[in-house]
Amino acid sequence: MVDVSRVRLSGPLAPHVVGFAAWLAQQGRPESSVLFHARRMAHVSRWMQEHKIAADRAESDVVEAFIGSLPATRHLARLRPGAFVPTWEYLRAIGVVLPSKPPPPSSVVDRVLDRYCRYLSSERGLVETTIARNAALVRPFLVDRVLGDGPFELERLTPREVTEFVVGQAGRKPQSLPRMATALRSLLRFLEADGFTVTGLVAAVPTVARRRLATLPKALPLQQVAALLASCDQGTAVGLRDFAILKLMSRLGLRTGEIARLRLGDIDWRRGELTVAGKANRHERLPVPSDVGDAIAAYLTRGRPTTEARAVFVRAFAPYRKMSRNAVTNVAARAARRVGLGTIHGHRLRHSAATAMLHAGASLSEIGQVLRHRHALTTTIYAKVDIAALRTVARPWPGSGAAA
User: Is residue 279 annotated as part of the catalytic site, yes or no?
Assistant: First the structure.
């Protein structure tokens, strides 16, 4: 129990400071961190008392006003509202502050986008990052359909207008055009199903050239993959965790998001199987090689901190919560920097896993099953790195001696 008796308590949040400190300590935070947050809560509480603000108003706008009221010479003035996130989490957990609800969509474009995003989540099973990206890509199209403050023009939308919008975007943002066209088709299907537009507009989106098989997969040689794994200090908890994550990437080709979503109940130790929550909310089972299972078991028994979180991989520092997708990506990036390989992210190891399986004699169909590709065409890119097989179908260069 952290002693907060030296913290000056007054104001509407004063009765909650002791419980807040105990809650932080249960998360495994060091005493210095607990006292830091307890003092911040006490400072805000005294300020709220001076301004006659009740406890249930302790939200982010109150903190911004508190920080803005401090003289520039005060050390607290250097804080940001993000430093008070644990405070809001605790006050919401005990019911002092109700969970904040997002404001209702104010414009007609926002209302359509809100319905579209809920459709992508409930009907299509897309993850939040993909939904947010699609919404951002199609927003300019919807904005173009609103004439000032006048009526919404979707019901009179024509195929020609759809085509002209895509052509116009090609001149402004050619790099994002393939994704934008895909998102626009998705939006038009939703608008048609929801009765906003007439049918047949999806076909008006021009086909964008996507040279998906024009390049080689950027896989790492086996020696470099081995160097990444060897760079993890398995004498430390972080090293055990990072080693297990890199094993999942380089041996099974798991995506960073799939590793972040992996839960303790997804591992069937008796059968040696792993349930992977992949794209579009698909759940598939994979066999766990012995070396991968050993790496995960070593982390769980010797490196994973005690926590109520059910995620397999958790943060290295308190509070011990599940790792984010970006945190998993950074595991590969840090390992690459340690061995002097520059910037490498998790998807390079996914390509490395596929290439290693190919060199070991696996067929493209088997590789596609391990990588959980929905379409066989996605896997065919790895045929371009199968040099031995390509030699059997290569024709002699015209005029060379091999033609004789």
Answer: yes
